[in-house]
Amino acid sequence: MSTSITSLPPRGGHPPGTALRRIVAVLVALFVLAGSVVLGAAPAHAGSEGVGYWSGSSFLGAYNTDVDGRQAYCIDLGSVPPHGQTSGPQTVGSLDSLSRQQLAELNYVLDRWGQSGDPNLTAAVALYVWSVADPGLYNSHGMSGDDYYVARAPVGERGTILANLAAMRQEAAVNAVTDPSLSLSVAMSDQYAGTLTVAAHPASLQGTATLTDAVFGDGSASRTLGAGQHQLTGTPADGAPSYRIEASMSVAAAGYGAAVDLYTTGGAQRIVAAVAGTSSGLSAEARSPVIELDFQPEITTQVASRFVAEGDAFVDELSVSVTKGTWIRLDGQRIPITARGTLYGPFDEQPAEADAPPGGAPVAGVEELTLSGAGAYTSPGTIIAPESGFYTWVWQIDKAAQGDYGRYLTDSLTDRFGLVAETSIVPFQPVAVSQADQRLVVPGDAVTDTITVSSDNGAWLKRDGAHIPVIFEGTAYQVPGTLPPAESATIDPAAVPVGTVTVTANGPGVYTSPTVVLPQGGFVTWVWEVKKTTQPEWVRDYLASDWADAYGIPVETTSVRWPITTTSLMREYNVHPGGRAFDVVTVTGFPANHGEFAGDGYWQADVDELIHTVYGPFATDAVLTDDLELTDAPVLTTITTPARNGVYRLGYTDQDRITPTEPGYYVLVTTFAGDDRVQPYASSPADVLERFFVPPTPETEIPVTVITQATPTARAGEPFGDTALVQGSSIPTGAELVFRAYGPEPAGESPVCETPFFESARIPVTQAGVYYSGDTTANHAGNVYWIETLYDRDGDVIAEGACGAPGETTIIIEQPEELTVTTKAVAEVTLGESAHDVAIVSGTVPEGTTLTFEAYRQDDEQATCTPDELVFTSESIALDGPGEYASNEVVFEEAGTYYWIETLHDSQGTVIHRGLCGAPDETTTVHEVPPTPTPTPEVPEKPDTPPSLALTGGGDWWMPLGIGGGIFALAGALTLWFGRRLAIHRERTGYVREEDQDFLDLIGEE
């Protein structure tokens, strides 16, 4: 059925009476059939009505030929129906007076709709056949034959039948041809793409076309086509150097041409049908000329490794394919093609993708590969990575360089420059040269290090135009012992990290580290490292390896100069002219081996000299302040001692005698010039314990006065106290001194002294001198205000301080977050006496922390503290927070020098702090028992109650007179005048005299 008639209405119902006639016909047929069975005779090939409509005795539709089962249509309107013996079909090229075009149109309609089972279609075909084959009779009824004969159909179906008839006439006039034809031609636009042109008459003809060595656009070699141009692609045999394409096509042309099949029945109408069978089929063939072939290989590459270590081979993995044709074979073998790979680099970052390398691009090497077909290849790996950088491959196939095989290549090939997949990276090695910014510092100072960073194996690589950032980690190590470190490739296992900082280097250059606070004396040396594991993940692959500089490099080392302290006490406060003064100076803080280090070329030798200068006389002690300019001060005498830890008794020999000749006030100042291991030092001219007074000769009563100085600062939980200097020529018998502490009060608020949290014992005051309150502690930060009160024997107040008076405030500060430890061992003992060490722990103490002490005997000048020298290990002490912790006592068996080391462990047993061998205040010297002890002036030992220092005379002539009544009147008057002026001055100016805590330690230990 033609698509132009698919819209014809479907078959409808039968007209009235049709059903009855059908029933009658069926009964007649059954009767005839029964008769045939009985009689045994039947007519052969009789015609009968087929699909159509009855109207009375008239029929409109198709006849069944009963010859070949086809439906045929009457062409003789005036003849009887063909119910008799039917013969045929006979294909005829002419029929009556019909033209060849009419015959072709008749054939077309019969072929398209003649075999339909729809009565509306078969009725329309019958009308069409009558109107063409017998037009005279068809239109002889005084009206259109269409209207006349369609009346045989039911009224409701007539419109559909006539519409179908009109469509048939229209399509037949357009599509029917008298002589159908078919021709083919093949045309190629290149070696593979071509066009198959099908020429057919009529143009609507369709048939099956088959290609040889080619396929259609859908990939098939055979498909149904109509007239027109159809794209094809050649499919030559793999490797063939040439080929040709063939095409063939056959078309079933039934229904086309000026011919019909004719059936005849004697004495009855003739009936016709479309020409049947394949005899009307058309066929054609075509072939292309011989096509010479070439092919185009394609190379894509992927480096075997994105990152290649310096010294390793660059390897590229090639994937070879063919983008045009197939790889040509000659004598059964694929022809060889040479590919050339050029490796460009190094570049400091991924080069930009381009068609060609930039002018002057560096070349790392060239390699060649012989290609013998599509597949995977690996470059020879003869180019070795020389230095850091980005290296990118460019592969080329030069047609002109292939010799005779070049003619089989379509063109030369060069891939693009700078492809990421074709680029390998040789990681760079960041290094640093550093120098400590501070050569000499003191404990508590914040130090920095300057590092000059670079890459030592080529360029510092970039990504996205910026240098790749590298984190340098610098650790400041406390060098074990007290001497400069020896330079080494490895870190001394005994070195203790003090602090670790990081510097992010955004390329080569000079960087300054964050600060690190150095808490204790000794040498601290920097070690800088680059660890791949600490870098951002994306950075790690760009770095060649971890790196660390040497340990102990001199310019990377800082000397944290030890702070020394002196505690001293003049034996007399009043000395007559021409008499002698005596002083005991205790020096601590020097490294145990101070005076023995001779320098090493970078660090200077020790300065082994302490100078003790007695300045005076001064007319008043009011000038004896920290601001006193000593360069212009009068000097009585100068005494030199070694710059070593120890107790120095000054004034006891004729060589170091201290003999004042003029009245006035004198003070002893101890100074140390400083060296590369120890800080410069000068004791304070304001130290009341280092003064003595030479009174004038006139006698004057000196009133009783009290001058006080509290501990300036202390940490929460640590001991502190107050000191009072009592002066006067007539101290009442039975006088007592009491110290009271109030607070802590918030800083910045007005002092309040209502209820003391500490009150000392009542301290007997028998003479002028220095008296100490004893120790107390405070648990939180704030200001503690001291008030001292001097009572007579009846409890009346002789002198009393004021709340918040200058010099009478102790500032309590919180413990630091960082755990710090300072120590103070017993400095000297005699063989047979016990010794111990004390650790002052500050800061946050982790729960479960324990403390142990070790003592090492030293047999030479070098502080080593080896296991062979270990002579004592204390019991483990559990720490319950900041405070002072003492080791158990030990009696050393031999005289000599012993170094102490304190160690803190956390709850897991990990060392969190370890002291230094030979550190200041960590040395005990054990002396042999002297054969004949020589009495020497001693400072009174600290009793259970706070002690006092007596005011004594300067010679034997002075002693009989007594301390109080023997003083001359003028001396008393001057003392009173100086003392009152000093007190008033301090009250007005807010002056606070600094007293070293070691002075308090001296009072407690001597």
Walk me through the structure.
This protein has about 1000 residues and is mainly beta. It has nine helices and 69 strands. The strands form 18 sheets. Strands 49, 51, 52, 53, 55, 56 and 57 form a seven-stranded mixed sheet that branches. Strands 59, 62, 63, 64, 67, 68 and 69 form a seven-stranded mixed sheet that branches. Helix 2 packs across helix 6 and helix 3 packs across helix 6. The N terminus and C terminus are likely disordered.
Give the strand tally: 69
Name the overall outline.
Answer: elongated
| Radius of gyration from CA coordinates | 63 Å
| Number of helical elements | 9
Spell out the key features of this protein:
1006 residues; mainly beta; 7-stranded mixed sheet; elongated; disordered N terminus; disordered C terminus
Question: Layout of helices and strands, plus pairs?
Answer:
Blueprint: H1 18-39, E1 48-55, E2 58-64, E3 71-74, E4 86-92, H2 100-113, H3 119-133, H4 135-138, H5 145-149, H6 155-175, E5 181-188, E6 193-201, E7 206-212, E8 214-216, E9 222-226, E10 228-234, E11 242-243, E12 246-251, E13 260-265, E14 271-273, E15 282-287, E16 291-292, E17 296-303, E18 316-324, E19 329-330, E20 333-334, E21 337-347, E22 363-371, E23 375-378, E24 389-397, E25 413-414, E26 423-426, E27 430-436, E28 440-441, E29 445-447, E30 449-455, E31 462-463, E32 466-467, E33 470-478, E34 496-505, E35 509-512, E36 516-518, E37 522-530, H7 537-540, E38 547-548, E39 557-560, E40 565-570, E41 583-588, E42 610-618, E43 635-641, E44 646-650, E45 664-672, E46 681-682, E47 691-694, E48 705-710, E49 713-715, E50 722-727, E51 736-745, E52 758-759, E53 763-764, E54 769-772, E55 782-791, E56 797-800, E57 809-813, E58 820-823, E59 828-830, E60 834-835, E61 838-842, E62 850-858, E63 870-873, E64 877-878, E65 883-886, E66 890-891, E67 896-905, E68 911-914, E69 923-927, H8 969-989, H9 997-1005
Parallel strand pairs: 28-39, 49-57, 59-69
Antiparallel strand pairs: 1-2, 2-3, 3-14, 4-13, 5-6, 6-10, 7-9, 7-12, 8-10, 11-16, 12-15, 13-14, 17-18, 18-23, 19-20, 21-22, 21-24, 24-25, 24-26, 27-30, 29-36, 30-35, 31-32, 33-34, 33-37, 37-38, 37-39, 40-41, 41-44, 42-43, 42-45, 45-46, 45-47, 48-50, 50-54, 51-52, 51-53, 51-55, 55-56, 55-57, ...
Helix pairs in contact: 2-3, 2-6, 3-6
